[in-house]
Amino acid sequence: MVRHRRGGGNTHPRPPRAARTGPREPPSFRYDGAALPAPRRPQSTARLRALAVATAWALGAVAGCYNDDYLDGLCARTNTCPVSRVAFHVTALELVDPHSYSFDEVIGVCDDSTDDFNKLLSDNINAFAVGHALVLRPLDLGSEKVQLQFTAADCFNDDMAEGATVCSDRNIEPALSTNSTTFNFTTAMMSATDACDIQKVNSTNPDYTAPAKPGLPCLRSEPIPTMTLRLSRQPGMTPLEFELVDVEIAATYAVEQAPQRLVEGTLRGFMTTAKAMVPAGQVNGVDFVPWKVLAGGEGCQPDAMSVISDLDIHPTLGQGVWMYFNFTAESVKWDTDVPEGPSGTTGDPTTAGTASAGSTTGSTTGSGTTSTTDATTGGSSSGTSL
Length: 386
Description:
This protein is mainly β. It has helices at about 45-65, 70-80, 115-125, 275; strands at about 5, 10, 30, 35, 85-95, 100-105, 110, 130-135, 145-150, 155-160, 165-170, 175-185, 220, 225-230, 240-255, 260-270, 280-285, 285, 310-315, 320-335.
């Protein structure tokens, strides 16, 4: 029997349904005889946020980088931030072991010229001729390990931000930037109080200022195979750079109050004899050869009756010298092209300095370069010495 529906059209009685034997197929809807896919249920807010973050990061990875303005906007839109990155600018750097020894030709004596060397470092940092930054991804003392980028940096005081320091790695050569896994140690983790002591046994002179021993809470990097540490840059001269191997970095966190700081910092690295014997750059227009100022190398001896040697033996690299630098660092605005990934990961640091779409928070002066103020030493005694 055919039943007539009001308004026209026919309907036919449906045959009885067969018993379901397999998994239920998703329902479908028909329009003009064609099956249409069933509409999806609305996704949860959390799922949408996670999808937005993942999509945004993927788009950023395709583009090669994305800037801080983009990240800030993403956080505001999704309430989910892909990374919490904090950069610390090294405000003080001091060589504590070994010392440098130079012969003062004016008064005819061997002089411990380490203070002059450290004045060179200080003058360069204060004049923004040289900069260094430690970038933690993320700054999270609750995490057992985080990512650390130690890099040379172009820094300047931003008059638009009441003189706040801004640092950038946009124009830094990849060789001047390193990345490593860094471990956090806190009292909550019941860590040993010397967990961040990176001093090697029998590698320091007890008559010198001791390398800092960071207290808890602290960070300690895993060994970094190689590092180029830029120490001085004077106009028209080759920058002074030490080539170090087997590097470790450690510091105490002082981040409970603004400005956040890293204190009791130590950077330790080994310079081989081969590297020490060749010019590491220029100071005051003269090639600087570390071997010529090292006790145990060609450096002079203050007391001929009590000979000093600062040379060490590396277990696999042989003769050279362990170098210890103490430092402090303070949080700053960070301007970068390095892409940020989710969960505190980073992109390839070698992409730093490549073109970026748009400027980041705390924009630079355009070129990203800083003052080339002549940061020279005081009291230098001879051409090849400090």
